[in-house]
Amino acid sequence: MDINLRAFINRLESLPDNPSHDGLKKCLREMDGRQVSIDEYVNFSEQGYKRNVVHVSSRCEISVLCFQTGQHTPIHDHGDSIGVTIIRQGTMTEELFDRQPTGMIVSTFTRRFQTEEFSCVNLTTIHRVSNAHSEGLVMINIYFPPLTVMNFYNLENASVEKWVADYSGVKGT
Ligand SMILES: [Fe+2]
Fold it and tell me: Are 113 and 68 in contact (CB under 8 A)?
């Protein structure tokens, strides 16, 4: 692993519990300013967007997410995690949703993030992330605590599907 990436992981691990979005952004900005190499974690898949876990512990997770043109996540929340994303390459399209008292979700608005821009998720964020552009999309995500559970939503009914992370096989954790 790149020595600067290791230093970044150590910095994240030394943050106080429940860091703020601003605290996480500061760490990411510092890392990005040093152009820490994440090349070994940039992996695309023909099957769908790819989550490449760089580091996971009881406190936090760092993942590199890669989307080919046209690939997208399910509509999802982030369980008990907050997160900060920086776009390393490409343009991220984020569609946000609200959950109604009936349990149904409705689309609220869509926004785009370019290379070097940040986006954040909190405990109430429900969104769908996609790559609607011709260039590959690469983003670095930090989660506190690790993203162990996501709920998947759909626009047809109020049913929710639970996704549970499998971190077995992650190197260097
Ligand atoms: Fe997300």
Answer: no
